[in-house]
Amino acid sequence: MSATSIIERFQNVMFPAAAPYHGDAPLVVDHAKDQYIWDVDGTRYLDFFGGVLTVSVGHCNEEVTQRTLEQLQKVQHTSTIYINPIMVEVAEKVVALTPPGLQKCYFTNSGTEANETAIMAARMYTGNPIIITLRHAYSGRTMTAMSLTAHGNWRLGGVVDPYVRHVRNPYTYRAPVDLTPEQVVDLCVQDLEETLATTTNGRIAAFMAEPIQGVGGFIVPPEDYFKRVMPIVKEAGGVFIADEVQTGWGRTGGKWFGIEQFGVEPDIMTFAKGMANGSPIGCTITTAEIAEAVQGATFATFGGNPVTMATALATIEYIEAHNLVENAAVQGAKLREKLEEFQAEFPFIGEVRGMGLMQALEIVEPGSKTPDKHRATALMDSAKSHGLLLGKGGLYGNVIRVAPHLNVADADMEAAFELIGAALVDVS
Ligand code: PMP
Predict the structure, then answer these.
(1) Are residues 164 and 298 located together in one domain of the fold?
(2) Residue 24 burial (C-beta neighbours within 10 Å; 0-12, 13-18, 19+)
(3) Would the ipTM clear 0.90, i.e. be above it?
(4) Which value, to the nearest 10 degrees, does the dihedral of the CA atoms of residues 16, 17, 23, 25 take?
(5) Which UniProt keywords apply (predicted)?
(6) 159 has pLDDT over 90
């Protein structure tokens, strides 16, 4: 079956809005192993995006796959009307690895649902409806999650939650005028205070943020941003929700969770993606007190199912056993250094930013900060034609995202550097 005929059939039966990457020549996947994906025509690609930071320890990782298969043969699904021991084990693991105050977990099937659970818990705990979140956030695709999302093109149809307020995000590269990181934080804090004073009665349910904005283009806040925001959130009666869907499980290097890089403790954390190396998962963890406020009955048919839990446990234990949180820091530093070398060479790279194994290139018109979406897309397509898969993002579609698996080795890095170099020359 050729790629062309599958693409044609895809277009016949799928929503047009479900458009894949690489417009004219989307990748039609046949199989994948470790750092590689093969398309149906037999071409091999080095994967430096992991299905949007999802395949955290390599495609069909030997150990993870084996343990998943064993579980599949033992018991696949009984729903949460019964207790399965492996769900308890994963919950214990999450409790052990997250900050000490966080003690109670709830499992679902996606990041969207993990965020919905967090919002529900925050509202029930505080009795307030208002959620403050950041511009350029991506939170998922249900009605509430789309209401939280602050990228116009991801807010389809009816964005209906009237209680969401978006405040300025700490995007130092795109401050309205040239400001120092400290001044950007001041501006964000001022905007938060003004939003509270003008659009709320001063009481909120939560402040929700990705420690590093993912879809937004790996926007890293200045170090003290969250420390400055926290007291204001608390003063307004709100809890702090850290959306760790992209930044969790070692991705940022040196710490298990992105928010730990900023020295504050959230009241709620949400996880998905890399937690189960490519299996559908969502997890929300919070304090005993907040969990206690979620009164009534809540039920997700597949949330915490034994197979996904086996994959999650195997993934987390693989990250631990192979020191991948550290590897993400070491390899991430190499990646960063090389990308900065490229920036010195290619004037259309406006900024290199990120943390650990989530690094980005913001593509602009040389000599200005004008976003250059077309060159960014061309760069990503050119990398693919050389056999390397990268991601894109950013409100203006001009940010290239580089996020290899956490177990990326020197040889993969060297290979990727050559291919990125070739793609950069192509689009020069
Ligand atoms: N939060 C963040 C930070 C995300 O990046 C995403 C997915 N890109 C989501 C939530 C939603 O996750 P899912 O697609 O699994 O529903």
Answers:
(1) yes
(2) exposed
(3) yes
(4) -50
(5) Aminotransferase, Pyridoxal phosphate, Transferase
(6) no
Query: Are 420 and 279 in the same domain?
Result: no
Element housing 232 (H / E): helix 225-235
User: How many alpha carbons lie under 13 Å from residue 373 in its C-beta half-sphere?
Assistant: 5
Report the domain count for the chain: 2
Domain boundary among 304, 321, 338: 321
Q: Is the pLDDT of residue 307 over 90?
A: yes
Length of the chain measured in residues: 428
Instruction: Identify the domain containing residue 200 by its residue range.
Output: 63-321
User: Model confidence over 15-71: pLDDT tens digits?
Assistant: 999 989 999 899 999 999 999 999 999 999 999 999 999 999 999 999 999 999 999
Residues 273 and 193 in one domain: yes
Contact by Cβ (8 Å): 362, 396: no
Q: What is the pLDDT of residues 331-370, one digit of tens each?
A: 999 999 999 999 999 999 999 999 999 999 999 999 999 9
DSSP β-bridge partners for residue 240: 207
161 and 262 in a single domain? The answer is yes
Closest to 371 measured CA to CA, from 400, 413, 338, 344:
400
CATH number at residue 388: 3.90.1150.10
Q: Which residues make Cβ contacts (< 8 Å) with residue 280, sequence separation at least 6?
A: 109, 110, 302, 308
Q: What is the pLDDT of residues 192-237, one digit of tens each?
A: 999 999 999 999 999 999 999 999 999 999 999 999 999 999 999 9
Is the C-beta atom of 279 inside 6 A of ligand 1?
no
Q: Among the three residues 321, 337, 359, which one is the final residue of a domain in this structure?
A: 321
User: Which residue out of 245, 259, 392 has the highest number of ligand 1 atoms within 8 Å of its CB and is therefore the one to mutate?
Assistant: 245
Tell me, using a 6 A CB cutoff, whether residue 210 lines ligand 1. yes
Q: Which atom of ligand 1 is nearest to the CA of 282?
A: 15
Lookup: tokens for 154:
């991801």
Rounded distance between C-alpha atoms, residue 223 and residue 225, angstroms: 6
DSSP state of 220: P
List residues bridging with 213 in a β-sheet. 219
DSSP string, 96-160: HHS-TT--EEEEESSHHHHHHHHHHHHHHHHS---EEEETT----SSHHHHHH---GGG--S---
Question: What is the rounded end-to-end Cα distance, in angstroms, of the chain?
Answer: 36
